[in-house]
Structures are given as structure tokens and as C-alpha cells.
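Quick one: C-alpha cells for this chain, please?
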Amino acid sequence: MPGAARALSLLFSLATLVVAGASAAARARDRASGENVWRDSLAIVLAPLLLAAAPPFLVYSMSGTEMPLFAFLLLAGCLLFERGGRPAAVFVVLALAALTRPEGTLFYAIAFAALLARHSNRRAVLLAGALVAAIFLAPHAVWKWRYYHALLPNTFYAKTGPPALMLANGAGYLARFLVAHGYLFPAGLLLLRSAGRPWRELAVPAVFVSASWLAVLALGGDWMPHFRMLLPTLPIVVLLASRGAAAAARGPRLAPAAAILVCLTMLSGAFGRDLFLAERVTVTAYTRLGARLAEILPPGTTIGCGSTGAIGYYTGMPVLDILGLTDRWIARHGAVVATQPGHLKTDGAYVVEKRPDLLLLGNVQIQRGRKERGEIRIKVQEREIVRQPSFDELYQFVNIPLGGGFYLSCFKLRDYFLPLEPPQ
């Protein structure tokens, strides 16, 4: 399954490059005069070249996440609208985006409002929008309500906190993106305007990008490297920048302008490299830990931790997410105890009441050799757990041998039988 997910990510990333290039080629054909063959040829490859050079696009192109699919659908929907595609086609593509990620509904609503304002046959737009929503969005909403008892995903509640904190986190996240890549958006708009392009032509991509960025600002950004939450708008941003460069640069001047843009786009990757490499090492360690725990722990063992993805998947065991990303109670009722985006909440009393057999605290401590309890760095989100009056009565600190001289330092229920635990 992970291999298939990565293959699909790569497939949709390549499809995004193709769509970006095809859009540039269509615009080049529209304005072709036979006098600027070199400029038009370079303009066609500039958008996919910039996108392929962008570190966020490369990092997530084989991530196995939904982001490449969402970016592809968002770009396709924007271009369909821009090229005057049938409203039904625009709605179908953006409905698929809404099924991929919840913020896709925002773009569906934007396209619906814009088509109503611009289309000559408003009744056809209303019918197409309502029909597509009834076929794609309504059944999904009903299923979510019946299964989850909510229309928004659990992660939305887990990752939201006080408005001031969310705006502060979101502003910092967006500011870093603007320095790294986001400046291409206003630069592209200004270049296109200076070349005489009307605002009407630029309105749809500008609104799509602006709406996405405002949503990320309000929702507090993200903690993962290379701007995962802003990746979906990056193809649109790059397309606008490449169009602006092609419109502003004449003849041979486009080549150095394109080279500078590509170099600037690549340069930003150096600033997030350490965090990216650290995350790769961490995910690899958790993957191996999950596989090893599946081998050595008794069936039915319950695990509490804050890094549930790889550990939950590879152990195949019940996992209590102490940060609430997969736990309804903590997501909605947990206390905000931290400021890190996506890692805000916990409920120590609830976690101890649930009594998972193992508690992997300290952000999962794997090391060569044993550790003492006092050597474990307890994260701020985990302090609420160890401070519970009954914690020491219920749990004891252990070092679980993983093989090769490595140990997992964690806490286990005192009455939980751990076969590999040495005599105390």
C-alpha cells in the first residue's frame, strides 16, 4: 500500500507538470505570430520547469499523501474555468477536489459564484452546480455525518485553538512561504498587468490563490517541512509567474529571466533541508519500530503516543492518539497546552483513564542503550499525562529491547505482561 500511494503521488505530480505545460502551449498558440518562436518555446517549458525546480513540489511528489492529487485537481479546475470550459466540467473537477480535501469545497463555492457572475446562462450554471453537488458532495456529506457525526474531519478540531494563536502561527507560516516562493504570485500579477493583461483575465487564479492562503492563515499553518498546506496553489502561482515573465521579457531577454527564476525557486530548498532530512529519518525510525513491535508485542496490545501514523500502521494495533488527531474526545475537548501547529491539545486525565498498555512518551524514545526515567525529555503536550495523580501508581518506566543494541524507552501498565522485559 505505501508503494502504491507513492506511485499515485508521482503520477498526479507528473500530470500536473503536463497540464501546466499544455496550458502554456495553448496560450502560445493563441498569440503565435511566427516572429517569436524561441520565446514561445521557452514560455511553454518555463512553467513545468519552475514547478519541477520547486522543493515543495519535489518533496511531496512521492509522499504518498493526497496533496499531489489535490494540487492537480485545483490546477485543472482553475484552467478549465479560465479557458471557458463548460460549467459542469468545472464543477466535476472541483467536486473531486472537495472529496480529496475539505477545503476543496471552498474552491467549488468560489467557482460557483464566479460562474454565476460571468456566465450568460445563469440557469444552466445553477442546474449544473446543484446537480454535481447532489451527485458528488451530498452523498459524501451524509456519509460523513452518519459515520463521524461531523462534516469536518477530526484533525480540524484537533488542530484549532484560540484565534490569536492560530493567526500568529498562520502569519509566520505564510510569511516564510512568501519569502521562499510566494513572491512569485504578486510578481506574476504585476508583470501581466504591466503587459496589458486585464484584471478579468487574472481574477480567477488570483482569487483561488488568495482564498487558499487566507484559509491557511486562519487555520494556523502547518509544522511539516516545505509548506505542505500551500503546495496545492503552487502550480497556479508558478503558472502566473511564467506567464508574467513571458509577457514582460521580449525576444532573447526571456532566457536569462527564466534562468534567474529557476535558480531562485531552487535556492529556497536549502533553508528547509535539515528539517526535511530529520523528518525522513524520524519516519524511517517509526516505520521500523512499528514493524518490530508487531513482532515482539502480544496481540491486542494498546499503544498511546503522539506519532501515530507509521507506528499505528505497521503495528496493526489499537493506538490512542494523545494529541487527538485520531481521537474525537481530545480533538473536541482537550486543553490547548502547546503552540506548535497541529500539536496543540491533549487531555492527560482522559489518556490515563483509557489505560493504554504502553505509553510512548518523549516523542517516542529510541536509542542505543538503556535510559533512566530522568533522561527522557517529556514534551509539553505529554506533561499533562505524567502529572496525573494515578500515573505512577498505574505505570512503570521500562526499556524494551528492539535488537541490535537499540531500546525503546517508554511506560507500561504495571499489570501488562511484557514477555521481553528483563527482571526488575
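Residues 274-413 form one domain.
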